[in-house]
Design goal:
heterodimer, A: 442 residues, alpha/beta, Alkaline Phosphatase, subunit A, 2 domains, 9-stranded mixed beta sheet, 4-stranded antiparallel beta sheet, 20 strands, B: 78 residues, mainly alpha, elongated
Chain lengths: 442, 78
């Protein structure tokens, strides 16, 4: 039986960690250079929720019935529920270990609010509403976590303040991690969400190909500096970790430059799929704020890092318009139309629209009728209306420079030297759970 | 009604002797060092699962609003 430490860096891409920054990060660099390196293939959709849940259960988003942060409540156009720890109905890595009496420390692995009883310690993730609620297992652990910070809000123009908050959050988290690392554990896993936030906020300042990039700008090095902070904190943490523990470095998906946001509902309205009774009065209005003629609407969409398309199906929706016998033909037509969308300058896009059953063997919960990635995720989906164009260079809800990407990182480092070092190819995110259990030896 | 144990944090419940023996055998060579720690672990899991089945909303209405606003500002709900 081996002890295992999993360092989760939300959204850390191979490009930064395996290539551009590896030489400047002594601790992370050593783990990467002296570890087995994989390109981690994320799930559909490559989003924080469901990705970490897929990783820690070995189940697909279809089996989990988790397709993002929110899900439709059946029978209502505008109601939805938010994913939480209670949305996961399969044992997670630490549950499997707990049943064998092994102790875990779990910090910030989404979605882990409300915290569930485990054999060991748990601190919930960034979906925790506030520090007022119960956010630890055991509940008494909370008393030791004064000033704990779950997350920062990155969509702000106050960049300097954001940097301060990011640094404060991460330093505090590592303080807590060091404290917990001195307790009894067999499996220790944490996720630092700050990596995702710093990339969303500062990618355009770093990436020379980003449309917002200006050479020599003040924030050019912020992402690099943040990884250096993680590196320094990790150096301190590793001093507390047993020398024979296997160390795993993992992200849930990658990141790349955002080219813009595509207004999916405006496009659906342009194409006649969505019928509005009125013109939106101002830019940025949500669909629920605009009167929709559901009696003539074929489909509507949701925004986010990918688009979800719902068909206004008779018998399923309150004012269904599409007959069941036409459903597949409509979906086929939508796929053809979506995949034909071109960019703002008429350039060809690599858009993919999938039926959930094409992606998952089992499709539980309330999936969308189509899952759409505009230009291979480079354009995010904006659900809001009232814009003068369907192509927004800035995001529709405040500054955001990065989108998600298919490949993350997965590194296994064994100080005992039992694992062969070097490039190992691709590891699917749904295979990680079994791989971790195998490394531990259960 | 169960009486409080000496520490004030633990109390005693009764289980059949045969079940006790089966558990004792089951936890040999695992991380569980006593039948009590195993029983506590299993009960916590089952109680949490039953609480989930009762369908309690994980978020109060105010917390839900707070989370939705936050997720929106994080770009997950546009």
């Amino acid at each position: 039986m081996r002890k295992l430490l999993v360092i989760g860096l939300d959204a850390a891409p191979p490009r930064l960690l395996y290539e551009e920054l590896v030489g400047e990060l002594p601790t992370l660099g050593a783990l990467i250079e002296e570890g087995a390196r994989y390109q981690l293939k994320s799930c559909h959709p490559p989003i924080t929720i469901p990705a970490w849940a897929v990783m820690t259960t070995g189940k697909t988003p279809g089996e989990l019935g988790l397709y993002g942060f929110r899900h439709r409540k059946p029978g209502a156009y505008n109601e939805y529920w938010i994913a939480s720890s209670r949305s996961i109905h399969f044992p997670q890595t630490w549950d499997i270990l707990g049943r064998r009496g092994l102790r875990s420390v779990i910090v910030g692995v989404p979605p882990s609010y409300p915290p569930r009883p485990i054999r060991g310690y748990m601190i919930s993730c960034f979906i925790t509403p506030s520090n007022e609620v119960r956010f630890t297992w055991p509940p008494s652990l909370k008393r030791e976590l004064k000033d704990y910070i779950f997350d920062v809000v990155f969509r702000t123009n106050e960049r300097d303040k954001l940097i301060q908050e990011l640094w404060r959050m991460t330093k505090r988290r590592f303080q807590v991690l060091r404290m917990l690392s001195r307790r009894k554990w067999d499996f220790f896993m944490f996720v630092e969400i700050g990596v995702d936030r710093v990339q969303h906020a500062f990618w355009g300042y770093m990436d020379k190909e980003h449309h917002k990039y200006e050479p020599g700008n003040k924030y050019e090095e912020v992402i690099k500096e943040y990884y250096k902070l993680i590196d320094e904190e990790l150096e301190q943490l590793l001093k507390e970790v047993p020398k024979d523990a296997i160390i795993v470095l993992v992200s849930d998906h990658g990141a790349k430059r955002m080219k813009g946001a595509f207004c999916v509902n405006q496009w659906l309205a342009d194409e006649g799929y969505l019928k509005l009774k009125e013109e939106p009065k101002k830019p940025g209005m949500e669909l629920r704020e605009v009167e929709v003629d559901w009696s003539q609407t074929t489909a509507w969409g949701w925004g986010g890092y990918y688009a979800r398309i719902f068909i206004n199906l008779k018998g399923r929706e309150p004012h269904g318009y599409i007959d069941k016998r036409d459903y597949e033909a409509i979906r086929d037509q939508l796929i053809r139309d979506l995949e034909r969308i071109r960019g703002p300058h008429g350039e060809r896009w690599d858009t993919k629209a999938y039926r959930p059953e094409d992606l998952y063997q089992e499709v539980k919960g309330s999936p969308p009728d189509l899952i759409v990635y505009f230009d291979d995720l480079s354009w995010r989906s904006a659900g809001t209306l009232g814009w003068p164009t369907n192509y927004l260079r800035e995001n529709d809800r405040g500054p955001d420079d990065a989108v998600h990407d298919w490949y993350g990182i997965y590194v296994v480092h064994d100080p005992q030297g039992t694992i062969e070092v070097g490039e190992k190819g691709i590891m699917k995110i749904e295979c990680i759970n079994d791989h971790l259990l195998e490394l531990i030896g259960v | 009604m169960a009486s409080e144990g000496a520490s004030g944090k633990y109390t005693t419940v009764s289980i059949p002797v045969t079940l006790y023996r089966r558990i004792k055998k089951l936890i040999e060579d695992t991380g569980f060092t006593s039948v009590s720690s195993y029983v506590t672990y299993v009960l916590r899991e089952i109680v949490a699962a039953h609480e989930m089945e009762k369908g309690e909303e994980p978020f109060t209405p105010e917390d839900r609003e707070r989370i939705i606003e936050k997720l929106r500002r994080l770009g997950y709900l546009d």
